[in-house]
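[09:14] KT: can someone run the structure on this one? pasting the chain below
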Amino acid sequence: MKGLLSAILTILIFLFDNLVASDIRLIEPNEAIRLIGKGSVSFISADSDERYERSHIIGSKHISTEDLRGDNSECKPLYLCPKDTQELLEKKGIKEHQTIILYDKFWGYKASSLYSFFESIGHRDIAILNGGLKAIRAIDPNQKLFDKLKKELKSLNSSIKKAKSDSDIKSIQSDIDSLLAKIDIIKSNLLIESGAEKEHSTDIEYKIDDKMINRDYLADKEELKKAVDDISKQKKDSSYIIIDTRSMDEIIGVKLVNGVLRGGHIPNAIFVGSDNITDYAHQRSFRSKEELKRIFDKVDIDKDKTIYLYSHFGAGRSSQVAMALRLLGYEKVKIFTGGWDSWGDDLSMPIRR
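[09:31] RB: done, structure tokens below
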């Protein structure tokens, strides 16, 4: 009986996941792994410089969330002005018609920020690697063998230190040399590599079509202020919802801006931290749609209302929660690209603590 109920539940979850319409594309590792090394595909790591150099998918390009924090005052709410965006993408060797697969370690929020960025300039073929770097490492058969041999090498190195006779030392050293040769061969076939980003071709052109720029899922400070004012007046009858995706430590914290304490949050915001979206148990960038639905049902998110989301800098955690909503079929979802950093520093904007 328990087996039957479990099977029925599995079918219901599958049906729910596939019936909910979404324009967000998640790519699973078993599909993504077949695309590594193809010229028509660019894998892009959204991790920090340090983490990228430590490990990334072979041939990956690198754009961190910090790269999206240029001066966009002339073209809000875009992350960067088109000219700066074009220069960045050309420098990274990214082509207009490539499939773009975005990833981070596995959390999802950094990859989501790049998804929002590419979507806003009208790049058509983009996906988030669900599970990121860790998922590819986990299914790479060479990686498993490599890790096993490294473990054996560590054991042999420990043994040679304890060896007493010359013959034992010579025998163990022979085993070590043989093992190192195998490790070198396997290392060259791993899907995860380390090191700085390679230089890209300087003759790449990326043309941004002004007609393709998509601001539908982005909002600036003025638009968000109108939503704040409307919620203050209309309360539950307002057509807007504001979601703060930061941690409680950040919300509680305070800082001085021109001698004035500016901690807290945007008025009328509800709280859905991005930590709720990542599936830490299975190291996937997003929980299942069923789990995500339960999370948003708890805070009563109405699909008919326009939903504004913000994090600290406007590129990252708010993007991930926005993507989760859209995976569930929410359409009126907007990321405030200025983030709390710009709102909290603006003394003309209201705050709550």
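[09:33] KT: thanks! Residues 10-19 have pLDDT under 50 and may be disordered.
[09:34] RB: yep, looked fine to me
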